[in-house]
Amino acid sequence: MSSQANFTHAEAAEHFIADEPRTDWHDDTLWFVREKRDKAAHSLPEWEQLRQWASDIKYHGLSHMHQLLVDFEKNAIANGIQVHWAVDGKEHNEIIYNIIQDNQVHRIVKSKSMLTEECHLNEFLTEKGVEIVDTDLGERIVQFRKETPSHIVLPAIHLKKQDVSETFHEHLGTEKGNNDPQYLTEAARGHLRDKFIASELAITGVNFAIAETGGFVVCTNEGNADMGAHAAKIHIACMGFEKIIPKAEHLGVFLRLLARSATGQPITTYSSHFSKPRAGQQMHIVIVDNGRSRQLGRESFRNSLKCIRCAACFNTCPVYRRSGGHSYHTAVAGPIGSILNPNLDMQANKDLPFASTLCGSCSNVCPVKINIHEQLYLWRQEITKEGMAAKGKTFAMWGMSEVLAHPAIYRMAGKMGRWVVKHLPFLTNNGMNPWFKQREMPEAPKESFREWYLNNKKK
Amino acid sequence: MVSKQQEEMSARETILAGIMANQPLGQELPMIDLSAVIQYESNLSQFKTVLESIGGKAVEINGWTALQDMMQSDLAQGKRLVNAIAEIGSIDPTLAILEAAELATVQRAYVKGGIAVAENGSIWLDEAAMVNRLLPFIAEHLVIVIEAKNIVSTMHHAYQQVSSFDTGFGMFLAGPSKTADIEQSLVIGAHGARSLLVCIIP
Predict the structure, then answer these.
(1) Potential cystine with A375: which of A114, A268, A339, A425 (Cβ 3.0-4.6 Å)?
(2) DSSP for residue B99
(3) Distance between CA B146 and CA A371 in Å, rounded?
């Protein structure tokens, strides 16, 4: 279901950083969230142990996935929940559309679910003439603007309050030029309360599904998932199958890690445990594969399925912070998105594993210890093997390997390079050289290290 | 005609077969060793500190009468309140089946909490305690009563006691509803309660 973007990460990032003050603001704001995460993590002496437990529980889950899903389904059905299975995004969307049709409902609210973004549910239903109201504040803002979330936890982080004010003035009739976040949030609260109260069907995501109980947990700070789910007569929860954990007691590990890693909060305001529909309510769960079982079979990449969508890797990534989520042209951006999306569609997402410095910060903050930066490196190899790497990169790599393989050529190239940078700087300080963008070229040294070494050895 | 049900059955078989073929060899579950987990000198004071830091308020009260006084003063001010605590007054027998439109004007709700967690300021509420699932979300302001002896240090300890999900719904609630979706500015009172007062009984 992934749609082919008509731009690469590097092209979109160039557009993003054209506005330097905004880029700096984006960078600083996300770094601030990263620092809050550090403070929260450091408040627990057992933090590293928790990460290990979480990683091990998730691996156990991956290795027992078949049994856990069968158990989960059995227990959920016994609890009165209807369980559906979808091989891909299209089936997921059709299952939801059929429930809407069967029940003849029109007023639908949806809380944050990256899976429904991945499956392009909103576009699908809009084409069918069904309107969905996104109820997470950040998602409602981007929905009004006909944009997509740029961050999985902070969907509108690419926007400034002036942008939100203009959007709300247009759609909610708020005072023009009033940029006060308190005022704007209050306006959204009033607007969305009416939607909740009138809603007939609520769609939510799932943070954790528990095989042992047949129930699932949804975490929010705003309370929007619950306002929808408890007000509407029908609740549909959508999950990728990797959300399964074996037992309720394991929630202790994951709920301790999730919000601390995401925003530096000790826990989200609401950690809601759904296990049975309320009297007279229909509750559905849609379990989606959409490429996940294929990823499960890729030994080098299967650990990416441990992800709990905290976005710590986004907030710490020097490339994400300075290129913005939309540059990744996928529902899940950032470092984790760059190792998940090539599995969904390698051709469409072949640029993403290259949108990284491989600094490893993502792996260091990951609460389930996914080796993200190593997988980025491995995806580059897969993509190059498939002949999909960017032409310029392939050529440069070929040139580099020739030069490095022949010491005489290497020395001569070095000499020429130093001479050119010194005497003909315009040959490198120009727009044709991608390394000159946003950078000054260094001053050329008089001699190479080898020359210096040979001269000094004599003395 | 192939029914929807049959089509979905085949999706189920396809997915499960793919997983069976691709899942790696088994790894044992780790033992969660509680001796490795943080302990606080006082769970009560840690709970209060964290709760205040996430926008909630904590007060220690002597007994149920303090709550009855609070309710009386709400009523005297003409506020619409809903009580879900048997110890402090009667519970509206229709509360369980009230719908969103009927609960939308509730200004304050009184609910009895279960286990509370020192490390994160959260409180377990299950459906039996909230009576109506929507109540703790839709009420403008929320008052929760807990007993000091029910405060445990971490979530691991909490789940040792919250193992039953028989009531169909339950949650850990930590502070009032909040958002920072506009430029990361924290605003209290997104969609749920605008304030949370936790009354702690010794």
Answers:
(1) A339
(2) -
(3) 42
Best of A53, A94, A144, A273 to disrupt the B interface (most B CBs within 10 Å) is A273
pTM of structure = 0.93
Q: Measured between beta carbons, which residues in chain A are less than 8 angstroms from residue B165?
A: 213, 215, 248, 273, 275
For B81, phi then psi, to 5°, come to: -120, 155
Q: Which residue has the higher pLDDT, A459 or B20?
A: B20
Supply the DSSP string of B32-96, one letter for each residue: --GGGS---S-HHHHHHHHHHHTT-EEEE-SSHHHHHHHHHHHHHTT--EEE--GGGS---TTGG
Map tokens 């999730």 to a residue. A258
Provide mean pLDDT across the span A204-221: 97
Sheet with A108-110: list strands edge to edge.
Answer: A82-86, A282-288, A234-240, A201-204, A108-110, A132-134
Give the Cα separation of B181 and A263 in Å (integer).
12
Q: Which of A47, A222, A305 to mutate to test the interface with B (most CBs of B within 10 A)?
A: A222
Q: Is the pLDDT of residue B6 over 90?
A: no
Using a CB-CB cut-off of 8 Å, the residues of chain B touching A197 are: 100-101, 104
Nearest-by-CA chain A residue for B171: A272
